[in-house]
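Render this sequence as a predicted structure.
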Amino acid sequence: MTRVQANLVLLLSAAIWGGGFVAQATAMDRIGPFWFVGLRFAIAAAAVLPFALMEQKRIGRAPTSAEMIDFALVGCALFAGAITQQIGLMTTTVTNSSFLTGLYVVFVPVLSILVFRKAPHWIIWPVALLSLFGIFLLAGASVSSLSTGDFWSILCAVFWAMQILLAGHFVSRSSRPLALSATQFAVCAVLAMAGGLLLEPLSLESVRASLVEILYVGLISSGLAFVLQVVGQRYTTAPQAAIFLSSEALFGAFFGAVLLGESLPATGYVGCGLIFMAMLLVELVPEILKRRNNSRRMRA
């Protein structure tokens, strides 16, 4: 797969996730966030497992214990991102959640410093300030207007950034995207269901009432889109993956407007625009400068 093809795969994944925001939000009327996340990823794990076994047969050996630990770490990051996003959707809009979650594109390079000791490009710091100002406008130009759900969504973006960073790192080392996907889904499902047993009631009626949403996000948003993400990340860089995946904010806002009738004040749209501009700048500026430097070297 070429890098262009990989990035298009990531774009498709982002479009699927954008549509999933609507299903995730409407399901919260009938089922708690822990059980929703647990059932969602249990279905995803079951759907991907046969393909992971086929992958194992093709490779000729099972994943090592070290690889399974790596995959489980990705699953822990996935759980943290999924549950904070779901809790946030209880008290914020699909539009706000999708754009605030998209801040992971800024957090990925920052976390690269902390996790892999890779210094980010200088553009990260002005872009981070631009993102913060975008959040300020998205909240109606008042920090006090940020809802609890908005703060959960920002925290979710940190965990999504970690999941993207770890998934890209470990899949490139193991070349087992399907095993990684199945393992992270299973770990996430177990952790979420454990939380559900401790914190939330569950009834067959609530599951039945939200079954369409659970199946959509389980089979499509999780089983398909996350596998596409992991496969695509084998052939591109983490920052490039983040920028294409961040387009889910636009898809989420679009589906929220079309299917749920959500709208924002003028300052909110400006804030969304600034956040998306930050997402683009963090990827485009380093790439443009890199090409200019290469061009100058060739001339010299």
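Summary. The chain has a mean pLDDT of 85. The chain is about 80% helix and 0% strand.
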